[in-house]
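Pipeline run #58 for the internal structure catalog. This entry was flagged by the ingest filter as a single-chain record with no existing model, so it goes straight to prediction. Upstream metadata was stripped on purpose; only the residue string is passed forward. Reviewer on rotation: M.T. Logging verbosity set to normal.
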Amino acid sequence: DRELALGRVRLFHSEPALQARYLEICQDWEDAVTEIMAAETGYGPEAGFRCRLIATAAVGAFRTAFRAWLAAPRTHLADHLAGGLDYIEKGLLPG
């Protein structure tokens, strides 16, 4: 249900206790993605840094997509996310 999902996202971004828990969940996702990438690409300080950076950017794209969806709910959440990931893929360069 789209309205229920929007309401849930709105609560996670407005209620302090839920927002704190949401950020914990985001950190868990960053950790999981980092671990998966490191296992596939090899461990080491340089690989670990890159894996963490990519994981953080990906989770950041999800977080930003949720906020964009709240601001423009007529656009599908997946479209907001795809736009954010495309922007990251292009190197965060304007244009």
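catalog note: The first helix runs from residue 2 to 14.
catalog note: The mean pLDDT is 87.
status: ready for reviewer M.T.
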